[in-house]
Design goal:
This protein is of the alpha/beta class and about 210 residues long. It has one domain: Rossmann fold (3-Layer(aba) Sandwich). It has seven helices and six strands, in the order βαβαβαβααββαα. It has a six-stranded parallel beta sheet, with helices on both faces. Strand 1, helix 1 and strand 2 form a beta-alpha-beta unit. Helix 3 packs parallel to helix 5. The longest helix has 13 residues. The structure holds adenosine-5'-triphosphate. The site of adenosine-5'-triphosphate (ATP) has 19 residues, from helix 1, strand 4, helix 4 and helix 6.
């Protein structure tokens, strides 16, 4: 049994707090690895909802040109269509400036009063979390749900509440963009997302 607890206190007269994971990323494009960790986190941590939050431009990936944020939001919308527990927020994507996770966490804490908030991420981001802004706010508002990746396992960081979940799905958006750029059929994409990529000629794949 995995301990995803850290429960918030109950407000008298209310039900148990809703358990909601915020899932920030570039999603350039959203792929099966993202969907795998979201659905496993939901199952193992008994989450009510996972909110995918495509960034406008990642503060951690300055200098890399991602597909326009409205395309990335739309691809996530297509990928989670039909998943009752998943949704997409354009909170970061429409700000047209880099958002920091602490700002996003503060926004959702205000918008979802009483909810217990988690932040979902892979070990590559967890390993650099000490470089994220306002760790005091992150630690106050969030429990981090972390997945390993490419044989790398997360290590505990005493500054934050965290839970490390088992399971691997080794795929990355970088690999997918490269495959598309070379006109290979990319693996690990939802069919609706693959159609969208083709239709909008993202990542240089040209429709015949
Ligand atoms: P890129 O290859 O462009 O860096 P990515 O595949 O890492 O992209 P992001 O959108 O940057 O995708 O990732 C968003 C979040 O999802 C990050 O916390 C990342 O660690 C996590 N993540 C993405 N893919 C996986 C995966 N296959 N396994 C575990 N975590 C993942």
């Amino acid at each position: 049994m995995i301990d995803c607890e850290m429960a918030s206190p109950l407000t008298p007269g209310s039900g148990p707090p809703r358990r909601i994971a915020l899932f920030g990323g570039t999603f350039d494009p959203v792929h099966d690895g993202h969907l795998f960790i979201a659905s496993e986190a939901r199952r193992l941590c008994d989450l009510d909802e996972v909110i995918f939050i495509p960034c406008w431009q990642s503060p951690h990936k300055q200098g890399q040109q991602a597909a326009a944020s409205h395309h990335r939001v739309e691809m996530v919308r297509l990928a989670v269509e039909g998943l009752a527990w998943a949704s997409v927020s354009d909170f970061e994507a429409v700000r047209a400036e880099s958002s920091y996770s602490w700002q996003t966490a503060e926004h959702f804490a205000g918008a979802l009063p009483g909810a217990q908030l988690f932040w979902l991420l892979g070990v590559d981001q967890w390993d650099v979390i000490d470089t994220w802004g306002r760790p005091d706010i992150l630690a106050e508002l969030l429990t981090f749900i972390v997945f390993g990746r490419n044989g790398r396992h997360p290590r505990s960081n005493p500054a934050f509440s965290s839970v490390f979940l088992p399971g691997n799905f080794d795929i990355s958006a970088t690999e997918i963009r490269h495959a598309i750029g070379e006109n290979a059929i990319p693996e690990g994409l939802d069919a609706r997302v693959a159609d969208y990529v083709l239709h909008h000629q993202l990542y240089s794949l040209k429709e015949d």
